[in-house]
Amino acid sequence: MSLDNYREQIDKIDDELLRLFTERMAVSRQVALYKKEHGLPVFNADREREVLSAAEEKTGEELQQYAIKLYTAILEISREYQEKILTGNERHSL
């Protein structure tokens, strides 16, 4: 297989990742609205530990540290987005 073929595969995967990211952030928006309505904080340490633990368990040993980095970034982005929604500084809606 050529490098171009591998890159084409990566491009297709990236398209799917972006679709899933957009879907995840839409749900994150709904979570933020729920939290706002119920007076809940954005940050939930227990939930984040659960997500990171699940990512670690579902990933082979070789990639675990990278899965943790990925999900740490996703959780940070999600918190930032939820904070914008809770504070009324949201510019875009999904």
Description:
The chain has 94 residues and is mainly α. It has one domain (3-87): Chorismate Mutase Domain, subunit A. 79% of the residues lie in helices and 0% in strands. 5% of the residues are buried. The model has no long low-confidence stretch (mean pLDDT 94).
Q: How would you summarize this macromolecular structure in one to three sentences?
A:
The chain has 94 residues and is mostly helical.
Shape: flat
Major beta-sheet overview: none
CATH class: Mainly Alpha
Overall structural domain count? 1
Strand content range: under 5%
Q: Examine the secondary-structure arrangement and name the CATH architecture.
A: Up-down Bundle
Number of distinct helices: 3
How much is the radius of gyration in Å? 16 Å
Number of strands: 0
Q: Output the structural class.
A: mainly alpha
Order of helices and strands: HHH
What is the CATH T-level topology?
Chorismate Mutase Domain, subunit A
Helix content: over 70%
Annotated CATH homologous superfamily: Chorismate mutase
Cα distance spanning the termini = 38 Å
The unreliable regions are: none
Estimate the mean pLDDT confidence: 94
